[in-house]
Recover the amino acids of this structure.
């Protein structure tokens, strides 16, 4: 088993070396080691909460309940620091092996680790936006609204309307411009490396199939199996932290 892991890491290193342009797609699994639970993994948030809570209709119909969940979810984000996965990907970018990261995460940890070309496909938890006038607010502002005043719904200081995290909720559309940006990165790549995602959330869940149909390579690193494993050029099941640390070490040799 160990030997098999060594062989797979070696093969991934070869694929990375041969690649002209590698795009990385990351999911919630890259941040679990930073203390932010994923949604569907073995200790995922959906073991504790009903996924319905993070939908666009829940935000509209039950904003107090939605914000209560959002603040619980954001707690670990405030304390989180980049882990070896974020750092390895930033290093691979610096060395010229990764050209872009498309992340489903809203935690900002790729940028904090030093990655430069990051597309936050689902937005960010660090900003909120007024649903009426579009005024943007920092997370710190939201916290001042929530804690001292004991209000459970943060509001715009100009028009008094409710704020929404500047992140895409379930059943909400991804902004077209962001999606187009992803498509142009994927168009130009010859390798898509998926890290820490079940590939169950759209539209990014379909990215591997899309690039494969264009004759490009797909590599997956994930703790568990994904639906696209059989069509991938290489799959490494295991902790991405250990795997990517070893990939960087081998590339540097
Ligand atoms: P997911 O929760 O559906 O799946 C995460 C996958 O990562 C699981 O298969 C799990 O086994 C794997 N995983 C966990 N830790 C790992 C590790 N150390 N190494 C390798 N694999 C590991 O995640 P998803 O596909 O990204 O979709 C979840 C959605 O929830 C996304 O839309 C994302 O925006 C959002 N989300 C974001 C955060 C965040 O910003 N950190 C956290 C939770 C959820």
């Amino acid at each position: 088993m160990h030997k098999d892991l060594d062989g797979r890491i070696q093969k991934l290193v070869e694929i990375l070396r041969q690649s002209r342009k590698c795009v990385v797609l990351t999911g919630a699994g890259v941040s679990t080691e930073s203390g932010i639970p994923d949604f569907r993994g073995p200790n995922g948030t959906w073991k504790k909460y009903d996924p319905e809570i993070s939908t666009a209709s829940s935000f509209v119909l039950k904003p107090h309940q939605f914000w209560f969940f959002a603040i619980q979810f954001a707690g670990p984000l405030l304390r989180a620091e980049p882990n070896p996965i974020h750092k390895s990907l930033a290093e691979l970018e610096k060395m010229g092996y990764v050209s872009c990261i498309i992340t489903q995460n809203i935690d900002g940890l790729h940028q904090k680790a030093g990655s430069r070309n990051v597309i936050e496909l689902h937005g960010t938890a660090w900003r909120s936006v007024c649903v009426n006038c579009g005024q943007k607010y920092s997370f710190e502002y939201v916290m001042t609204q929530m804690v001292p005043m004991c209000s459970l719904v943060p509001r715009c200081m100009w028009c008094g309307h409710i704020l929404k995290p500047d992140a895409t909720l379930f059943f909400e559309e991804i902004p077209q411009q962001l999606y187009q940006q992803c498509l142009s990165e994927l168009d130009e790549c010859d390798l898509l490396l998926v890290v820490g995602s079940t590939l169950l959330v759209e539209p990014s869940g379909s990215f591997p199939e899309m690039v494969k149909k264009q004759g490009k390579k797909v590599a997956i690193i994930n703790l568990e199996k994904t639906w696209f494993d059989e069509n991938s050029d290489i799959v490494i099941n295991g902790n991405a932290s250990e795997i990517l640390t070893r990939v960087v070490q081998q590339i540097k040799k």
Q: What stands out?
A: The longest helix spans residues 2-18. The beta strands are 22-26, 100-103, 118-120, 123-130, 136-138, 163-167, 191-195, 217-222, 234-237. The two ends are 24 Å apart (CA to CA).
